[in-house]
Design goal:
Elements lengths: L3 E3 L5 E4 L17 H6 L2
Antiparallel strand pairs: 1-2
Length: 40
């Protein structure tokens, strides 16, 4: 099972895949996805 903890600046803070930590999350390319997530 994979997991991600993403900060409000869209940077991966923790991940089951160590190489993803500290990088901008790929879901930022999905339009308004994070806007909906952050709004609840």
């Amino acid at each position: 099972m994979d997991y991600l903890i993403i900060g409000p600046d869209y940077i991966n803070l923790a991940s089951s895949r160590e190489q993803d930590v500290g990088k901008k999350n790929l879901l930022t390319s999905q339009g308004a996805f994070f806007k909906q997530v952050w709004s609840g």
